[in-house]
Write a structure and sequence with these properties.
Blueprint lengths: L9 H15 L21 H16 L4 H9 L14 E5 L4 H4 L16 H12 L7 E5 L13 H18 L3 E5 L1 H7 L17 E3 L2 E9 L2 H6 L4 H20 L14
Parallel strand pairs: 1-2, 1-3, 3-5
Antiparallel strand pairs: 4-5
Helix pairs in contact: 1-5, 2-6
The structure holds iron/sulfur cluster.
The site of iron/sulfur cluster has 13 residues, from helix 3 and helix 6.
Length: about 260
Amino acid sequence: MPDAVSHFPAPYQELFHKVEHGLRNRLRYGIPQDPLTIGFPRTPDPEAKQKLMSIAEEVRECRACELGDIRRDRYGKAVPGAGPAQARVMIVGEAPGHYEESLRDKRAMGFGMPFVGPSGKLLDKILESIQLQRQDVHIGNVCCCRPPKNRDPYVAEIDACLPYLYRKIEIVQPWVIIAMGRFAAQVLCEGAHRGEAVGDLLGKLHPYVHDARIKVWPMKHPAYLLHQARGMVGYYEEMLIIGAAIKKAMETLENPNQCRPFELP
Ligand code: SF4
């Protein structure tokens, strides 16, 4: 039977298998074995889903920056984000890559999907380490179209695409947003400025720039681990902190639709 990661290049496969091995031994790192049965997502709200769908359709037609034309010329797909309409946890990355924009999956309804390449595979395993599944979280990007040759998105492209991200956050109303990489951290953390290194923002919760009740937890992008596998343990530790905070918040919840301040334990 083909391995779930066999379509990735060999060095990535090796890394994924190492991560899997680490996960099997996760008790060594103090990670609980029992799943976090904490009721993700909230009670479905059909209207929220509809609003997200209409943003996705806008993104599909969008030409607000040059990435839209480049995508159209390449026959690439827009990647507006995916996940429950009212997830407790949202993950925001930078921009789609080759795997994301060329996904062929009927369930994606003609869109690409965020984080399905090597970084995404790693993200799944990291989420698994804190007992979260991909379907528990809403995942998006700062830019919805792939920059050519996977370069960093330009400031003008980020600015053009940000309104979509901010509208989605307003609909999803997550408790916590995990900002993966500097571009996401810079546009989501209150008080952060463009050009700020993600290292200066790591290790604490920041208020979300448009709603202080929502918290942002900046992290390095999982792509960093593809080149720096030694950083994996530290990365796990950061995920453990946020996983423990989510668990604590859910345990103290009085009803499943309640919104409450989110804090570190
Ligand atoms: S990156 Fe965003 S703003 Fe630019 S064309 Fe794509 S959807 Fe529109």
